[in-house]
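A.,

Following up on our hallway conversation. Structure tokens first:
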């Protein structure tokens, strides 16, 4: 189990942060195997007598899928119940065990619960023999890396990007108006060095610790402006 942590809520930004930690620690994977969670994939339900859907499954790019496409990582979705169980079973066992441990030890804060989580991760990865492979997971992984059987590539920001911040971010596009500005979540932002009426790419990087929203604006693969706003001014679910 390469990553596990607690977040205040499940959202696109939390999964982007988790993916960044994995990739910067171990490298770029060849493929990423996930369930069809709304963060990973847009899945449209069936039409009904009362409602006809215009957009179909995968007609909308999620923020997470945009990031994976930039990274050049193929995403595979678990569609069967057996495939979903293969992904969720270890985490479900871990979640149940942590909840029981926290209840027995009267742990009520995320910080203290994270200590329990780290202890369980260490046990699972470094001391427990896996029921299927009959090997300790960390040793099995190290052996695969040493034998050249791991399909991880060294990570570096893909061109034209030069900073990881432009890879692991939330993406929007806007068109510069006749006054050289764009409108972004009720903010009117001046964009110098970009022609009027041209489309620009906007990268948003929420910083929870600083309570700030860093915004990086690019035109034709060149960053033309950056600005920072207080995070509380963005009442958007990320």
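Then the amino acids I'd put at each of the 238 positions:
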């Amino acid at each position: 189990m390469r990553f596990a942590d607690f977040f205040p809520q499940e959202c696109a930004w939390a999964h982007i942060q988790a993916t960044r930690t994995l990739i910067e620690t171990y490298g770029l994977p060849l493929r990423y195997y996930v369930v069809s969670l709304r963060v990973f994939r847009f899945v449209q339900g069936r039409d009904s007598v009362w409602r006809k859907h215009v957009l179909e499954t995968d007609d909308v790019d999620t923020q997470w899928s945009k990031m994976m496409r930039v990274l050049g990582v193929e995403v595979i979705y678990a569609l069967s119940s057996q495939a979903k169980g293969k992904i969720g079973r270890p985490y479900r066992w871990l979640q149940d065990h942590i909840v029981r441990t926290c209840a027995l030890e009267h742990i009520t804060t995320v910080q203290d619960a994270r200590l329990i989580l780290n202890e369980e991760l260490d046990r699972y990865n470094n001391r427990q023999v896996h029921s299927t492979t009959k090997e300790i997971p960390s040793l099995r992984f190290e052996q695969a890396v040493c034998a050249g059987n791991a399909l991880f590539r060294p990570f570096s920001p893909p061109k034209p990007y030069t900073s990881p911040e432009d890879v692991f971010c939330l993406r929007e596009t806007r068109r510069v108006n006749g006054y050289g500005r764009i409108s972004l979540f009720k903010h009117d932002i001046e964009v110098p060095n970009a022609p009027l009426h041209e489309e620009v790419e906007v990268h948003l990087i929420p910083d929870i610790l600083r309570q700030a929203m860093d915004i990086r604006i690019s035109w034709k693969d060149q960053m033309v402006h950056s600005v920072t706003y207080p995070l509380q001014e963005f009442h958007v679910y990320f």
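The CA atoms of residues 11 and 139 lie 32 Å apart. Curious whether your intuition agrees with the design.

B.
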